[in-house]
Amino acid sequence: MTLSAQGLSRRELRRLLRQARRQLGSSAQRQAARKLRGQLSHHPLFRRARHIALYLPNDGEIDPRPLLEEAQRRGKIVYLPLLNAWPRTRMVFQRIEPGEKLYPNRFGIAEPRPSRARQRPTWALSLLLMPLVGFDPQGGRLGMGGGFYDRSLAFRQRRNNATRPVLIGLAHECQKVDQLPLERWDVPLQATVTDAGWYPEAQSRLSAVPD
Ligand SMILES: Nc1nc2c(c(=O)[nH]1)N(C=O)[C@@H](CNc1ccc(C(=O)N[C@@H](CCC(=O)O)C(=O)O)cc1)CN2
Ligand SMILES: Nc1ncnc2c1ncn2[C@@H]1O[C@H](COP(=O)(O)OP(=O)(O)OP(=O)(O)O)[C@@H](O)[C@H]1O
């Protein structure tokens, strides 16, 4: 079942889709997280990426922690988003180590203590696995509304031949929408992966990755 976005504003879509993902119970969440790892962990995009950014789940988001642990086991370098104290609209990516102590940010999402030496510019990441509120099979993405990811990726608009990082959205199947209304600053995703599969479907067979 796919939700039709027709006639709905971004605000209304956010409310409906956040509600849908929050309604998933803890066993459904655990199963979705396991299936998500199954969808990605053997894929060349994941296997060949060395610098991978993920997130810690919030507000019913699909849980990428099994993938995060898999990446650490394989010796990859793992990054989490870190909100800047100033300007507050900026977000950077900072590497974390297994077992590192994390602290809640102003939204209650755990993040590492700021350390400039451990941050990597977004354009130098291999793979960015992004949280989202809604997606469409054409690469459209709807976020929480803060514009944090869009701003971090604005360099893509200026250099639209940039191949790094590969942008992949992670979501529950219930976050799929037929077609999202796009804004001028929206950066398209190369693919979205859910517990049920890849969108567009052909990406599941893709093997080339720039690094
Ligand atoms: N897991 C995760 N981490 C992330 C993001 C995300 O979407 N998911 N972000 C992606 O941008 C950034 C944080 N952005 C966020 C934006 C809004 C809210 C949020 O819960 N807003 C509440 C209002 C809370 C408040 O103002 O105190 C709400 O809208 O209900 C959370 C995170 C960085 N880290
Ligand atoms: N490149 C940018 N430069 C400046 N402002 C931006 C940029 N991208 C987005 N914004 C601002 O961020 C706000 C939120 O954008 P939008 O509703 O698209 O967020 P989102 O994609 O849902 O959130 P996120 O990117 O954090 O997941 C908008 O009001 C927009 O003005």
TrEMBL record:
Its EC number is 6.3.3.2. Pfam families: 5-FTHF_cyc-lig. The keyword Electron transport does not apply. Keywords: ATP-binding, Ligase, Magnesium, Metal-binding, Nucleotide-binding. The keyword Ligase applies. Its cofactor is Mg(2+). It is an enzyme of class 6 (ligase). GO terms for molecular function: 5-formyltetrahydrofolate cyclo-ligase activity. It catalyses: (6S)-5-formyl-5,6,7,8-tetrahydrofolate + ATP = (6R)-5,10-methenyltetrahydrofolate + ADP + phosphate. Belongs to the 5-formyltetrahydrofolate cyclo-ligase family. This is 5-formyltetrahydrofolate cyclo-ligase.
